[in-house]
């Protein structure tokens, strides 16, 4: 009875307007972030196939490392959100400062390793590379590796503003990053003919600008998480441990997830050029459909994290339901459009008839499975992570990834198995989604995450 009275006395932490103000900028930001990655590839096409190949190879490594930075940022955002929910602003500011130090140290170490072992890494991961492709890859790798600390600081700062419920800052920062990146690319690639190196410098300059802006905003007097004496390091190991409790499992999950995708990609390359092209285009189109779910997943960390910190667990469940409904409605609408327009969308790209047919086929299948299973597979787990249940989500994600997506890809796709080719790889991915969705939904409704103590 007492619990019911307390629940009635609880004021909602987030109004409908607050949720809208949080989610809409996140959706826009995710679209903008997609264009940053595409800009280098698109603009470097004028420099020839070697430059395109070099940029593409290095981007596979960069994506893997960016996932590590994002994982640490998520760990910090969860801790900070829970402290804000408990109205412990001083502890929240301490956690925010420790997050910035942690990502700066980790990213600097990764930058040094990438710069020292850049050629060995490229040869180890991709095997024998043609000399002109290697030259372009090395030039692009050097410039983008120098950007790692700035990328990580920006990711951490953006996560901190989201934990405050302010996603407009990261949205406008992403817009500025796009403008700077495209401008510098245009000058160096088209004006000075610097090819892959020009694209890398564009990325470096834009990331430096993003980091400087986010640090400036975090030191403003009106910022809830104002960072005082940023350049006078003071380490609180207990706070760092709390951040890493979420960040390490999340980083392992994201990193090994990308590694699993590379294994599957190596299988697809054995199916021929048409299959590789079809897979690349289908992934590019499908990623647009996922944007609302990714944005709502980021919002989930803030909302559920604050509710758990305040011990408003009934509100946490209620907000999770609301956010999942929004996710299903928005992604369902986009999936319906994708299913009906798969053929025309693929037709926008210069693909062979065989590749176009494969891309359209997998996209229609993708539209159906995305509408039903993707939100529970990738958005709902953020509610669990926000409560501190990161080890469980990591364990299930990795087990499902390698058992379903990787193992079943070979069974469904290879000639010694069902021989379904590219479609078999995508069907294996859908099996991964189904397993994740079922397990995460059961975990959420059983409520074990409510008993986890992070702070």
Record the SSE blueprint.
Layout: H1 2-9, H2 16-43, H3 49-85, H4 89-116, H5 118-126, H6 131-146, H7 148-163, H8 168-191, H9 195-218, H10 237-268, H11 273-289, H12 291-309, H13 313-347, H14 353-379, H15 381-386, H16 390-413, H17 422-446
Keywords: Antiport, Cell membrane, Ion transport, Membrane, Transmembrane, Transmembrane helix, Transport
Transmembrane segments: 18-39, 51-79, 99-117, 137-160, 172-193, 199-218, 262-282, 294-313, 325-349, 355-378, 390-413, 425-445
Main location: membrane
Question: What labels describe this entry?
Answer:
455 residues, globular, MdtK-like
Largest beta sheet, briefly? none
Order of SSEs, N→C? HHHHHHHHHHHHHHHHH
Runs in which pLDDT lies below 50 for 5 or more consecutive residues are: 1-8
Using only C-alpha atoms, the radius of gyration works out to: 22 Å
Strand content: under 5%
Question: What class do helices, strands and sheet pairing give?
Answer: mainly alpha
Overall number of strands: 0
Shape: globular
Keywords: Antiport, Cell membrane, Ion transport, Membrane, Transmembrane, Transmembrane helix, Transport
Protein name: Probable multidrug resistance protein NorM
GO cellular component, one term: plasma membrane
GO biological process, one term: monoatomic ion transport
